[in-house]
Amino acid sequence: MTVGKRGGRSQALLATAVLPAVTALTVAVLAVATNVGTEVLPAWDWLRTPWLVWSAVGVLTAVAATLAVAQAHRPGGGPPSDPAAEIASRQSSARRGRTEGMSVGELTEADALALEVHRAVLTDGDEDLPLLPRYVERPFDHDVRESLRRCRARGGVIMLIGESSTGKTRACWEAMRAVLPDWRVWHPLAPERPEALVSAIEAGTIAPRTVIWLNEAQLYLGRPGVGERVASELQQLIGAQPGGPVIVLGSMWPNFWNSLTDAETKDHPAARALLQGSAVPVPSTFHDADMRRLRLADPPDPRLGLADRSADGRITQFLAGAPQLLDRYRNAGEVARAVLWAAVDLQRLTGTVHLPAAFLRAAASGYLTASAWDQTADDWFETATDELCRPARGVPGPLTARKPAPGGAGAPTPAYRLADVLAEAGRSERSRRCPPGTFWKAAAESLNDADQLLQLARAATVRGRYHRAYQLSAAAAWRGSTAALEAMAWMRLISGDAATARRLGTKAVARGDSGARIVLALACDAAGDEHAAAEVARQAIRDADDPAALLALARRRRDRGLAEQAAALLLDLPPGSAGMAVSRVIESMRRSGSFPPGSEFVVNVRYGDQAAPYSAPNGPRIARAMDPPQRDGSGPEASAPTATDSSATDPLDRDTVYDLVRRRDHARVDELMERMGRMDVAVGWWYQQMGDLDRARRWFVTAIDRGEQNAMPALIHLIRSRGEHQQARQLEVFGLDDEGRVSRSW
């Protein structure tokens, strides 16, 4: 069935204005019906009254129909054509024959744009030129094509690594057409990139001799909750080669590559294995020999000539419109800049490229001063997004509105995409800044992806915004995340609310989160139900041979002076039944007559291989979870940070940094840290050792805002060292408020 222009506009309005409200209400009904709990939605008790619920649904549905009809009769044209939508439609047609993708030999230049090759900047009088500028090969192009030739027989992965707008995607396009003209190419896009890829692999619709096109591969491999599955499925597909080889051809920025392939972490093991040996570096500039080839291009292309005169070797960036986009970013008005900053922060903290309009509208106000916000017009958001989406010289604007692919399932949530070059520039500019309160609040209320919400909750935690982390966790739990329930239980336990922690932990365990037995056992014990606590810990052994809950409980009882109870708990374990580590603990206890110290053992058993939700601060918060805090602030103090906490500082630079700190050359210290891309916590510790406590405190606060994991424990220790125990206790339990001050209870 064909949908006319008016019907398309009414559907768009329905998606924009009404469907989110109906969806939110429906989810709320389900949340109450499935008993997520009053801890998550305490203000929605009215949903338990059926006539109120269905009356509200009826009103919203009637409003939706009225608005749709009204919109359908408004004059105006339909949406402009979109290359990505067109290629998705063609792929959809191919899928009816159960084969993904299209023939490489049949691709046109328009398909290059659909495969996300950047549209080139326009020059005066170039309307008759080809859509793509003439391609100038560089030395790395030879490496790409040789890699494709090697993979043509046996399959494999080729990943181009370079900064934004350096020509990665165009190089993939040229190499694929030159080496594999008789293959197929498939760009997984809808309904979401990683889900589309996994579904096709499972359905067996990827034919042999297909190039799987993973432009911005981090969107497939780095997405929480699904990225590792994508990597595993691709490994299996390439290794099995059912009927013939398959090649994964993609690109990503260096920071994403480093994150996915870092052997020093235990994150992304499947992605790391998939990507091993696949990198082809792409330089950011054209070298002298490249420039000579560019100038000898025949026939000449005026766009290349303009880039030669204007770009100082950064040819591909100029052609992609990077200078114009950066100028528009730097010169944007206050309101437009606020929208861009909200977009930058969401993309840098979650990795998502689809930035919901509802989120941007709700978050942007916090990036404005009070006086600037008071002066905004009623249509401020529409005015700002219209300005930001306006193309210039043929290049899309800083934002691009997301359009649905023809034949897609339902109307997508209205969203925008941020230009790559601005995502990269904004990531650097915003790296030292913690997003405002409206950012976290808008995310909790506007985002529907539980994994993204949980990711943001972790980002809020490491930045000390514990109340925002709890709010985001509640939103993720509302949307079905069991891990979020466990995280909420930890935070309640740390704050001293053992009863609520127990309820949340019970729900998490009931939903299949066996790891939540640790917090459940400790919550039961803190609530005074020692028998239930021990039974929870023993059940973890019986069900999963997991000693972590029992060890945590034994440690807590030992620290409370209940050594016999601690020993009894451990002696319930047959030596070796839960692994060599437990056997060593038991034998050590038997020899010494007491449970050995070392709380880090408990943390490593549970969290060494699987990071616990919100274990980012690592120091006192997890330690406090093993020994729930007392409201009078008593308990062991956080240990002091040391210079060895600086795991990311280049050892060759550490002596240089220390010498600058000792000489109080603060400007040089800041410059070096900025170049290294982080705020090393050890620098603040050095300031503290030298007696410059005010500067140390400012350093730690800035490091917290930047998201440095060890900065919060360092700040707590500094405050305690100054004798401000109550404030340190308050900070440890409740974190910072939106303005960066020590938070009150929440």
Topology:
Elements: H1 5-33, H2 50-72, H3 83-95, E1 102-103, H4 109-114, H5 139-154, E2 156-161, H6 168-179, E3 184-186, H7 193-203, E4 210-214, H8 218-221, H9 227-240, E5 246-252, H10 254-261, H11 269-275, E6 279-281, H12 288-295, H13 302-310, H14 315-319, H15 322-330, H16 334-350, E7 355-356, H17 357-364, H18 370-374, H19 380-389, E8 399-401, E9 415-418, H20 420-430, H21 437-446, H22 450-462, H23 466-478, H24 482-494, H25 498-510, H26 517-526, H27 530-544, H28 548-559, H29 563-571, H30 580-592, H31 599-607, H32 620-626, H33 651-662, H34 666-676, H35 681-689, H36 693-706, H37 711-721, H38 725-734
User: What separation lies between the terminal Cα atoms?
Assistant: 53 Å
Biggest beta sheet summary: 6 strands, mixed
Number of helices, where a helix is a run of at least 4 consecutive DSSP H or I residues: 38
Helix content: 55-70%
Coarse structural class: mainly alpha
Based on the coordinates given, report the CATH architecture of the largest domain: 3-Layer(aba) Sandwich
Q: Gyration radius, to the nearest Å?
A: 28 Å
Number of domains: 5
Q: What is the CATH first-level class name of the largest domain?
A: Alpha Beta
Q: Give the CATH H-level superfamily of the largest domain.
A: P-loop containing nucleotide triphosphate hydrolases
* Average predicted local confidence, pLDDT: 77
Estimate what percentage of residues fall within beta strands: under 5%
Strands in their spatial order, largest beta sheet: 1-3-4-5-2-6
User: How many strands?
Assistant: 9
Shape: globular
Low-confidence stretches: 1-81, 576-586, 592-652
In CATH terms, what is the fold-level topology of the largest domain?
Answer: Rossmann fold
